[in-house]
Amino acid sequence: MRYLVIFIFFTNLLFAQNFDSGHLVLDGDGDKVVIFSNPMLDLIETDFTFEIVFEIVEYNQSYNSTLFTKRTGQDNEGYYAGIAGTAYSMSGHLNYQMAHGLSPQVIGETLIPLNQKFHVAFVYSRQDNIMMIYLNGVLDGITNNFPQNINLNDANLYIGYDYYANAYYFKGKLDEARIWTLARTQEEIQAYMNSELPASIYENPGSGLIAYYKFNETENLGIGDDGLADDIRDYGPYGFHGDLEGDAHIEYNFNGWEVPVTISDASQGETTRSLYFGLEATATAGLDNHLGEVVLPPVPPVGAYDVRFILPDESGSLRDYRNSENTTSSWKMKIQPGQPGYPMTLSWNPDILPEGEFLLTDAVTGGDIINVDMKTVNTLVIENSSINMLDINYTLITGRTFAVNGGWNIVSAPLVNENMSAGVLFSGASSDLFTYNNGYTPVSTLENGKGYWVKYDEPSVIAHYGSSPGGQIAVSEGWNLVGPFAEEISIGNISSTPAGIINSSYYEFNELYTTTTILKPGKGYWVKASQSGFISLGVKIEAPVRLDLQATPEGSGIITIRTEDGLVKRLYLSKKNVDITGYELPPVPPAGVKDIRFDSGTYVENIDGYNKGIVVSGIDGEVEIEVEGISLTLENNGSKLELKDGEVKSVRISKSERLSVSTAGMINTYYLANCYPNPFNPSTNIKYNIAEEEEVSLIVYDILGNKVKTLVDGMESAGEHNVKFDGRELSSGVYIYKLVTRSFNATKKMILMK
Length: 754
Hints:
Blueprint: H1 2-11, E1 22-27, E2 32-35, E3 48-58, E4 65-71, E5 77-86, E6 91-100, E7 105-113, E8 118-125, E9 130-135, E10 138-143, E11 157-159, E12 171-180, H2 186-191, H3 199-202, E13 209-213, E14 231-232, E15 242-245, E16 249-252, E17 256-264, E18 272-280, E19 306-310, E20 316-317, E21 319-323, E22 328-336, E23 344-347, E24 357-362, E25 371-373, E26 379-382, E27 389-395, E28 398-404, E29 407-412, H4 422-425, E30 433-436, E31 440-443, E32 451-456, E33 460-466, E34 472-475, E35 478-482, E36 489-490, E37 494-497, E38 506-509, E39 513-516, E40 518-519, E41 525-529, E42 533-537, E43 557-563, E44 568-574, E45 595-598, E46 604-606, E47 612-628, E48 632-636, E49 639-643, E50 648-662, E51 671-672, E52 683-690, E53 694-702, E54 707-716, E55 719-726, E56 733-740, E57 745-752
Parallel strand pairs: 18-21, 44-46
Antiparallel strand pairs: 1-12, 1-16, 2-11, 2-15, 3-8, 3-12, 4-5, 4-11, 5-6, 6-7, 8-9, 9-10, 12-13, 14-15, 17-18, 17-23, 19-20, 19-22, 22-27, 23-26, 24-25, 24-27, 28-33, 29-32, 30-31, 34-42, 35-41, 36-40, 37-42, 38-39, 43-44, 43-47, 45-47, 47-50, 48-49, 48-50, 51-52, 52-55, 53-54, 53-56, ...
């Protein structure tokens, strides 16, 4: 029960672990960091604090797991900190010892589980005669024994290893280590236990910090005089750099992918090395130390085995990463066999290569001698001794699949394909592909960003492979067929140049035109522009004007048309005078494609006393027509059909028909018609309709708003009315006539021209 309580306690300590991109990995088999002897690191004749961020992955089965130590050797004098535990218990206590025989010591109260990151501060206050352990900023152990003075000038400081008792290995990960000549308080420890120290502290000799190891990269700093880039930088003010020994190495918090290529010469695998290439979010074209790209010494003489990547700056590295935003990248390898010579054998695992095309070619001819698809084979044997430079060429090849219906569809090419032929990309189509430019024209070569009409006899799934095109999509004034690129996008993330030129909704085609808010790869869409320009996908600058079905005029009458195969189209008759150009539908589809609209090309019309036409195309059979909020008369081929509010009736359609719609005489309708004739001299007729018996006012005004004549002022019965206006006593000009009832008003213009 004690262990359970403590474990829950630590989940609430909010150790955020906001450190750099890498950490030091020690495998427990002699791996260590050595900081060579320096009097400032004796840390036993003064106050000091040693902070370290660690994660233990396996306990020493018989001994302690060392975090750091500095001992004089056989006298067992110095200081030591680690974790006392065994592999069998899967947990242990922090252990902190100082002075002769490493006694006294303090043991932490809390069990340290495996595979969990912790911050620990080992604090020694000579003045207060205490040794303390703070775990994640909370006091975990304390003792009041005062150690004796010891001279440690000749002892090295080890991290992850105990020189005196080398069985005390540490197997795990270290993120940071900080050494201070201060007994840090709890508040000071908590201030930076979740993040790196600022430069104002670690570059300041007066801060009390004497060493600061981030464990984020290895360099050749001359430590150990081995000429290798295996040194750990001390970011503190004194530069007590450390040397990695054993298999200690930096492991990076990698945000991307990498693939090893193992290369051996004719020694039958005795001389082998792996090179790593890949893409990573923070990589650059230069040397990326934080990703383990370390400059190698110069290439050795011929006859000495050597393999390496050649970076863009001509330096050599065992690793080479490029930025993951790249859609194309190239890595250059130099290979040199040892004394056994050629053949050189390269091997890799095709299964871990990510999406894309990977070609391995010789750098001498650019692929005439060697040209290998790395996705299809796992080994290359080079016997030609003139081949000592190779290129790995990568192109992001993505795949997109999308469905098409049996019948007509609007489609697009979402990827850049090697062959942009319409017949290749849409090989199963039963028609040509058609583009739109004030009419439909067949095309043989497709362009990314454009939409096309195409017909399929059966529903199909289309697969395209290629790279993402990116860039902008050109639009012309008027209606445009467009297609998105490789990714689905919301119309709210589409911008235009110039801004504000998109003046319609985006329309898709699913057997009839409907508005949409999402553009999907492989599909095509209609959109209207007020002038030529460009649209950009994925940059939220402005949202296009949305004139979809929710924006239809309030109180409109609805005409619902249902076909035998289940298609439903709604048209709207506005009882208010609205600008119908905002409700324009895209151009009529190709011949034979179903379409229903007013003959004005819109899905909204005004009720103004004049007949309207509904054009029905590509439909052969009976349709049901339902009206809501309005009554009207339909005329089709000389036959009239009256529909009252809420009624449903059937009409026979033969491929393409025009249905004449009249609301004249329907008592539940309001409208004010355009006068006829207009312009007029000397008189004109004004027609209006009211839905119920009520007070009506119909007044004529001049252009300045002065009342000219009252035509109606009183009770009127429901239905249609016609009033004659005589202007023989008036001068030529523009006049306004206005109809007002309790629940309706409308205004129109007329011109008297003498």
